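Example (one chain per record):
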Amino acid sequence: MNVPWGWLDAAFVASERLPMVDRLKGGVRRGLVIGALWGGIALLLVGALLGGLNRGPAGAVIGGLSGATAGLCIGAIAGALFGPRYFYHADAAVVTIRLDGSDGPFRPGDTVRGHVLVAAHRTLLIDGGTIHLVCRGVRTYDELNGSGPEPELHRDAIPYVVAPSGQIPSRTIGRDTAVRYPFEFTLPTDALPSHHGHVYAIDWAIVADLGSERMPHLTAQREILVMAPPPYVPVYAGGYRSMVSAEVCQLILSLPKVLHAPGEAIHAALRLIPKRSFAADEIRAVLLRVENVPVGDDHTVYVAALDPTSGMMRGERRAVGDGTTYVWLESELDLTDRTTIRASESLNYEFCLQVPKEWRPTLDGPDGQVMWKLGVVVARPNQDDVRIFHEVIVHTFSPALQEADASPGQPPTRVRRVTVDRWPPWRGAFDEPLFDGPRAKR
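Predicted structure:
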């Protein structure tokens, strides 16, 4: 039984805040509220009418108040007693979505099969419902509104795919019985990959929605993971290399491969060729994740740390970039502390950083982008840093990912090896870097 008046819906919401009423079952509470309201209104009119006939206007007021008080009490008691017969409790049924066979992750083009299980704890009538495959994008951005120093946070949800799988027919489900409603979906061959980002996220889910006149809609949702296949990348015998030339030195960053899955180690080598002697506060390797959405007031936030419990982050906001860009420091490794680099020494470092196991692949979506950058920062006292970056591509198309996520595992050993070549540095010309990355703040 649906109540179409908004003031009754408001009364239901208000009743949930009362200390004793909020502990009652849904059917008892709904019956109590409806009985109290209808009883109060009915006896208010009767009391006002009888009081007015006997004592005039003053009697109408007294009779109306007395009738309303009596009606509230009598109606509440009657509604609480008979409400469970006409209204279902919130826990009268449980809706569960189960997958047949593998729980994923799924490749684009795969078929997802399963069923919706409706278990009833009392006899109830289901008016029907729907089962959908839903893909949505969520982009988060902040803007300075001028009313205060803190930026205002915005969040948009954008539907990409809403695919139905037929209608759930109306029927009566007996007490302590369960009914299965099968479904089958085929993922698009160009399906966007799942991405659990902070600024730009892609979520895939199966959503079941069942309705009943005597209780609120029952809704269940189950997330599914869609893999991100690795793009085609030319294979070079000598690996991949990025070069940068600065005033004091030349940097060469080499990687044996650029395609990586979550949990894998990125191995790299750095060659530092000084042009003259200079002091360095530190040489640090960093792994950055860059999320961008084309909305906001054109700024970049360099995030150094994030507290997953409170959601507070530590970083720096700069008025540069296109839209809203967040640069996350995912991992770092000190290659050396404060030192003096001599002009006659060429330094070589070998190191590795681990890709986090979170489901955050490289992404080029319709409303945002996510890139990964491996780089090295040479920090100099009172001077500009010398930085070099190379893009790496994180994909989730590995069949071993499911096993890796199930077992905690141990992070790979962070190899750090330094060799010094004592010979005149090579003065060759280098190309400009592919990406002039940000300075990662601690």
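Caption: The helical segments are 6-15, 26-86, 401-406.
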